[in-house]
Amino acid sequence: MAQITLIEAVTQALAYEMAHDDSVVVLGEDVGVNGGVFRATQGLQEKFGPLRVLDTPLDEATIAGTTVGLAAQGMKAIAEAQFEGFIYPMMEQINCHAARMRNRTRGRLSVPAVFRAPWGGGIRAPEHHSEANEHLFTNVPGLRVVLPSSPARAYGLLLAAIRDPDPVVFLEPKRIYRQYKEEVPDDGEALPLDVCYVLRDGTDVTLVTWGAQVKECLEAADELAEDGISAEVIDVATLTPLDFDTIAESVAKTGRCVIVHEAPKTAGFGAEIAARLAEECLFDLLAPVHRVTGYDTHIPLFRLEMKYLPSVERIVEAANKTLAVS
Amino acid sequence: MSIAAKFEINYLQYLDPAGQLVGKEKDLPAFAKDLDHMVKLYKLMVSTRVFDTKSIALQRTGKLGTYASCLGHEAAHVGIGSAMKDEDVFAPSYREYGAQLYRGVQPREVYTYWGGDERGSDYQNEPARHDFAWSVPIATQCLHAAGSALAFKIRGEKRVAVCTVGDGGSSKGDFYGAINIAGAQKLPLVAVIVNNQWAISVPRSIQTGAETLAQKALAAGLPTIQVDGNDIIAVRKAMEDALDRARTGEGASVIEAVTYRLGDHTTADDARRYREKEEVEDARAKEPLKRLRTWLESKKAWDQKKEDAWLTECDEWMDNEVNAYLETKTQPVTAIFDYTFAELPEDLARQRAEVVALDSKEH
Lengths: 326, 363
Ligand SMILES: [Mg+2]
Description:
The complex is a heterodimer. Chain A is of the alpha/beta class. Chain A has helices at 6-20, 44-52, 60-72, 91-98, 101-104, 135-138, 151-163, 213-226, 244-254, 269-280, 305-308, 312-324; strands spanning 3-4, 24-28, 53-55, 76-80, 113-119, 144-146, 168-173, 182-183, 197-200, 205-209, 231-235, 238-240, 257-264, 290-294.
């Protein structure tokens, strides 16, 4: 079985579903002959033709609105935003129509679409190519917001997102697109949405994160382990609808929680998790909840971007702060 | 210098405001020579107006929320709806009732939606059942039509998607985006600009510097025409031509139907604040029902007796619809949650349970 990267897992999932379901179509800028700027759709147009893998005019609103129309009339449409920083013109169609169609029509019409976008910083890219903006979608009712953090989860969660009868914003951490390979059988097996994945069991502190930061959290857990501290690492994976139970159960066990994300701190999705912990788990907590996040600034251009993104060092320090309280 | 490309915009009109034929009888399109059919169209234009009058009365007496009147648009809207086939898909904005009634939307559904209940968008009758619901964000529906047209093309279906947009909506990127992708991919789309001269308080003159709105299609490489939007024969003929082209694989078209918004933008608007009475009176003289009636009467296809009988029938129909609407019970509070996703997520189920508990305490 072949070892593949996260981006190859995306391609593998798209190809699998297109081969097994004629109603699946992919559309976006440069997704056809060029196979996408990150090559997520590499080879798909050759296999499935120029209509099912459609190079659209260069207009994100067109891509998103056309996707809504396709999906409402019986296709499973997968739109690609070239970068998350270009997703803003899509938001009117995503928020006002994709997310609302089922509710507006009492279920008569629905939008089984996926809006994919490479997401996040750390690839030394120009301005508008490095943003973490998942929180702009997490308070939109009717939307799922999903972030995979490994090749296997990219494959399984993308299949689930395509098969889901409701719209999914699928944000792909581009920093780890090619970071490592793992075995991902092309068996068409989807992974469950709406659940958190506990990647490492621990007893002293819970690290809650998603996307590319999963890597830093696992490394932080390794470092903490060297000091005899047992950290549990949770990949939220589906931000909304949130599987809060998994987080609550972990915190009931550890009594300590650090939330890690690269988006700005204020009103980032970490704030929602922290608020829920305060509301529902206060008496399980042995220490205040800490957040390690991007700052409330724009992500800097790339000479400084690694100073902005949460580092292993900052995560370890935050975990130690929670442990200093007894 | 040489000429890189050359364009002109044709204008189509059969019936002038006085109800006289502009051209020769023999040049009328086939459907217009079928007087029974023309009477049917006239009757729907009349019932649309009765419906509209009733809607405004409901709003003024506190029985309906904000409502966007279609007064003066009857020829444009019925012309669009009547040209379409059942299998086609319609993506309206929010005042194309003449087209929607033709496609099976019931007046009670219109009242239900604008009366604060989502069930009004759950159109029960085909072909409206597969049409899009009202789209309030301006011009966004044009892209839904383009996407539908792409679905038809991918599946090899001989169906056409039709969208309507206003003069104001034609300024928006979504309108251009829709006709642009339709041009690039030869999609079976018909985009109709219903130019009623006003976008709330902003007149056509400062909406764009373009001489016609029809010419916006040229930038997308599409055939286009401007028609007298108060002449149902012209609207219907332009629609039939455009639908034929789309259905036979020749791609998309744009139609600009020039009409006039005789009423306020919505019941929340007061057009006296920004336009002259004289302008409205001039426009009223060109309204669509009178000219068609004059012409049908000259053909002995219609008379006062038929008019009275039909108005009575429409009144009864609308009273029946109003009663059905007024008798509609409010949805259970759980309806707030139950259509957000196909299956209620656990986290949302908890909020639902909270509301159910609260609601049962209140009762
Ligand atoms: Mg207008």
